Sequence to fold (54 residues):
Amino acid sequence: MKVAEIIARAIQHEIPSAKVIKIPIEDEGEGTIDALVADFKRIQQTDTAARPFR
Fold:
């Protein structure tokens, strides 16, 4: 979960009010990525970035 911690800290640094949920996954079994993508489609949210590049 080290990568998840780094990503969460970076998000919270830029957006202090963000709620970051870390979900441990692995990429070794068949269907792991398919299951992950299906779950993200269920909770997918979109937003418009005012200044995506600084």
Observations:
- The mean pLDDT is 76.
- The chain has two helices and no strands.
- The CA atoms of residues 22 and 41 lie 17 Å apart.
